[in-house]
Amino acid sequence: xxxxxxxxxxxxxxxxxxxxxxxxxxxxxTAEDVVHDVFxxxxxxxxxxxxxxxxxxxVRAAVVNGCRMVLRRRRWSWGRTEQHEPAxxxxxxxAILSEDRRxxxxxxxxLPRRQREALVLRYYLDLTDEEVSQAxxxxxxxxxxxxxxxxxxxxxxxxxxxx
Length: 163
What we know:
The protein is mainly α. Helices cover 74% and strands 0% of the residues. It has two domains: 1-82, no CATH class; 91-163, Winged helix-like DNA-binding domain superfamily/Winged helix DNA-binding domain (Arc Repressor Mutant, subunit A), CATH 1.10.10.10.
């Protein structure tokens, strides 16, 4: 993989990757750090891929793993009794976001990690079962069952039906 290819990938997908990471870790600063760390590591030690077309899938998986590592560190440092709450939205962001959307975000944060990751990858990034499978390191059948459980849990959290 060449440095120009990495720079092009960063420019094209940085914003989407950061947004995905925000949904997984709950705050923008940490999400930016995770994405930047992934690209810095790749610059120092480029992945050995047979096909450069698989680079985006590789980066998504690396960002998901980086988010997992951050959440593990938080659990370890805060103990298991305190749950991470997302950062307070800025006044501008709070004015833009509707209450319904904030409620969905809070419900999403209360889901188990694997279910939250599956929903974010599927519905935020619009990935297929196979792509979600690659990013999460699980089988496509597991993706489907995880999605079913996640949607049911989200519906319970929101007190209604989610499709």
